[in-house]
# Entry
Amino acid sequence: MIRVLIVDDHPIVRDGVTAVLEREPDINVVGEADTLEEGLRLDAARDPDIVLLDLRLPGAADVDGVSSFASRGRGIVVFTAHDGDEDVFRAIRSGARGYLLKGSPAAEIAQAIRQVHAGESYLSPRIAATLVKGVAQPKGRTGVLSARERGVIRLVAAGLSNRQIGETLSITERTVKFHVTAIFNKLGAENRAQAVAIAAERGLLPSE
# Structure
């Protein structure tokens, strides 16, 4: 059973999501909170696996909640109305493994929770499309990466696996591996984390 804590300052959102998740046989909502402070208190008391978290809560900076729950080892799925690419990257760099937009179908919310609980990442299709679209007008210096490679490194930075990147860009997983290898070679990186760090330094990713 996947134990979920919902932290959102809108009662109608909490009630609606709870009702949706209670229909899932493998998901149990163990608590609801409307502030970060209350959420952290319930986190300590209820020991959830996943925190479904509004990105912006009263009295807290945008990623305070993400950082706070990530430091406790929770799987975090951001659930927000904000779809700007910089919002996405700030949340992911702070420890979020999933990013959903409010208004997402019930099945998508459950899918995101299951994937993050399984150690994977999940991006709302609209969010993934936004990140890819942003490649057309990259910020800062473009370095030596091609437009396609810039698209791949942005999705790597978002925590997607090669399979998920392939599905997002409509290319094969083998092609993604080819692009990732080329990115490593061009950036002088030994692994994905180094590649993301170097890409950020060179202005190939949205700034925080």
User: Anything to note?
Assistant: The CA atoms of residues 188 and 195 lie 8 Å apart.
